[in-house]
Specification:
Shape: globular
Number of helices: 7
Helix content: 40-55%
CATH class of the domain at 3-86 and 139-158: Alpha Beta
Structural class: alpha/beta
Largest sheet: 4 strands, parallel
Low-confidence stretches: none
Strand order of the largest sheet: 2-1-3-4
Order of helices and strands: EHEHEHEHEHHEEH
Strand content: 5-15%
Distance between the termini: 28 Å
Bound molecules: zinc ion
Length: about 160
């Protein structure tokens, strides 16, 4: 399952990458170019634009219309629509560029990690595309917290039964 997020969904796109989903985000594309890209790459178009969603539907592109809501609602809706489970950090992609992350040893990237994080982190990653380095930093807790919120919002997102 791969996604193409429209221009209004930058934050949603970053979060989708973080929780493991291949998500394209391109700014300043015309609607026609967005639709062509979604069709060519067989990506689900995520959009807040009703008109664009209608056009996508007419062209036979997969599309999910997201009402103007928060990030928890966006992600909950996407996960439940396609029966997906977040795969953080196993399949996390680079939130900056959507590149795949490679497990790396601290020795390989030591200079790029702040001293305080070198010992507190057990795992390190490097983007195979833009080279950005990631570790279990302060964001880690925020990501976990958001995933918990999504779980509460959409219990079926993790395949649990709803009482
Ligand atoms: Zn990257």
């Amino acid at each position: 399952m791969r996604f193409l997020a429209d221009e209004m969904l930058k934050k949603t796109a970053r979060w989708l990458r973080l929780i493991g989903f291949d998500t394209l985000y391109l700014e300043k594309l015309s609607d026609a170019a967005v639709l062509e890209k979604a069709l060519m790459e067989e990506r689900v178009l995520l959009t807040r634009d009703e008109e664009l969603a209608k056009q996508a539907g007419k062209l036979g592109a997969a599309v999910l219309l997201l009402p103007q809501q928060g990030i928890v609602e966006d992600l909950g809706k996407i996960l439940s629509a396609y029966g997906l489970t977040p795969a953080f950090p196993e399949k996390t992609r680079c939130p900056e560029c959507n590149g795949a992350l490679l497990d790396v040893k601290l020795e390989e990237i030591e200079g790029e990690v702040p001293e305080g994080s070198r010992e507190s982190s057990k795992r390190f990653w490097k983007c195979s595309s833009c080279g950005k380095v990631y570790w279990e930093g302060a964001h880690w807790k925020n990501i976990k917290r958001l995933l918990d919120q999504i779980d509460e919002h959409v219990p079926e997102a993790k395949g649990q039964n709803v009482a």
